[in-house]
Amino acid sequence: MTISSEELAEVRIALRRTLPRDASRPPEPESGAVGGEEASDLLGRLMTLGATLVEGRELAVTELADRLTRSEMRTCITDQALGRAFVFGE
Known about the structure:
Oligomer: single chain
Mean pLDDT: 72
Strand content: under 5%
Structural class: mainly alpha
Number of strands: 0
């Protein structure tokens, strides 16, 4: 199976799209707010960011698998067409 450089470039672009656009660092919490509402808010943001990264990576891997499957299907169809042409050529 051969993967063209165009397909690899498309996969790279798909992986780059999964990176968060604005991953700025939140401000450090004050010592009195560590166990309070601000800490749970930061934890919520962190969990959301983690879920977004995982979801994006899963999407990129799924897209890669789809592209590889389509590429393999094209190869099989081409092999079948060449096989038929060979049989008729004899």
